[in-house]
Amino acid sequence: MRTLPPGSITTIDLATGTRETEQYWRLRYDPLDRSFTYFVDRFVELLQEVLDEREADRRRHGLLLSGGSDSRLLLAADDVPVTYHMADWMSREARTAERAAMSVDAEFRLLRRPDDHHERMLEHVAPRMNFNGRFDQAHVNGFDGRLRDELDVLMTGLYGDSFFKGGLVPKRVLDLGGVGSVTTPVARDLGSVEDYLDALDGSLPPYVESPPTLESILRGRIEEREDGSIAFGGVDYPSLRELVLFSDYYPLSNDRDYHYFGLTQMVDHWTPFLDNRFIDLACSMPIRYHLQRDVIDAALSALSPELASLPNAGTGVPPATPFPFNYVRKYGSLFWRKHVADEEPLGRTTPAGPGAIGGRHPRTRVRRAVPRGARRTASREPASRPRTRLGLLSRPHGRRGLHRRALYALYRPRRVGVRGVRRLGRPRG
Question: Is the pTM of this model over 0.90?
Answer without folding.
Answer: no
